[in-house]
Amino acid sequence: MANEKAVHITDAVSIPMSELRFRFARSSGPGGQHANRSATQVELLFDVAGSPSLSEAQRQLILEKLKSYIDKEGTLHLVSQTYRSQLRNREEVVERFRRLLRAALQVPKPRLPTRPTRAARERRLRAKRRRSEIKRLRRRVPSEVD
Does a structural domain hold residue 112? Predict the structure, then answer.
């Protein structure tokens, strides 16, 4: 995966690896000397706002749906420090990037309007009549003065 030229998101969208930036740092947590000396944490940076690989509609979808991952400048940040190996963390963060973008670019199907069934309408009206009767019975009874 690390030697691929592009990250395939959907049939229509591929992001060239040249548009992705990676930063490396020391991972937190246990691991002894290996963890203290190795920069195994990987941070993926992707400039959503300035990417030539995305159409304006795709850019807006991503900016809206992934806003918790995107900073003020329009850069998407993803971090992986699951593994002790920098290569595996890099592969994992690229895979997460692929899954997140695929989900963000999914356009929801339009809702088909449906009408309530006859039985549902009748149930609703029966319930309204029952409630109306309960409230009518709560009213004060007019006194019959002769």
Answer: no
The three-state DSSP-derived secondary structure of 70-138 is ECCCCEEEEEECCCCCHHHHHHHHHHHHHHHHHHHCCCCCCCCCCCCCHHHHHHHHHHHHHHHHHHHHH
| Beta carbons within 8 Å of 8's beta carbon, 6+ residues apart | 14, 98
Which pTM was predicted? 0.68
Q: For 44-74, what is each residue's pLDDT tens digit?
A: 999 988 888 888 888 888 888 888 988 888 8
Assess if residue 29 is contained within a domain: yes
Structure tokens at 77: 């940040």
Taking alpha carbons only, the member of 20, 26, 24 closest to residue 42 is 24
Position 23 in a domain: yes
CATH number at residue 47: 3.30.160.20
